[in-house]
């Protein structure tokens, strides 16, 4: 389970964070809706939390 989390799920979670971050930055640079940027940044924080939880579960599973 640890190898599945660390080799498949974690890179997907990190990529999702990066994509949402880039979308938020692009929206801000183009002068898009501030509400949209705020929603994207909130989503980024949520995805970062999920990525950290996945990382901690993978580290815990490797220790067992």
TrEMBL record:
Span of domain HIG1: 1-64
Record's protein name: Hypoxia induced protein conserved region
Keyword Repeat: no
Pfam families xref list: HIG_1_N
Keyword Transmembrane helix: yes
Organism: Bradyrhizobium ottawaense
Keywords annotated in UniProt: Membrane, Transmembrane, Transmembrane helix
Alphabetical list of InterPro entries matching this protein: Hypoxia_induced_domain
UniProt feature coiled coil, ranges: none
Record PROSITE patterns: HIG1
TM region(s), chain numbering: 6-25, 45-63
